[in-house]
């Protein structure tokens, strides 16, 4: 069995204004249907997530795994 890539960072809360999860940027429907989607559909959605996360009203309060890994590599994420 192959592992399914997921953008989930365990910050599961929906921004009521945008409808996107504060942690990963997916909608409720995308989250609930993630396992049933084709890998192509999941990749398409994942490509849209950084732009979506820029539109949420509140950023996660704790450092995410993605941000920590980028910081450790010396990358700059958002401001």
From TrEMBL:
Top-level taxon in the UniProt lineage: Bacteria
List compositional bias (Basic and acidic residues) regions by residue number: 69-79
Region (Disordered) residue ranges read: 58-79
- One Pfam family this chain carries? DUF1289
Tell me the InterPro entries matching this sequence. Answer: DUF1289
Q: What is this protein called?
A: Fe-S oxidoreductase
- In its UniProt entry, the species of origin is given as Manganibacter manganicus
Its organism's taxonomic lineage begins at:
Bacteria, Pseudomonadati, Pseudomonadota, Alphaproteobacteria, Hyphomicrobiales
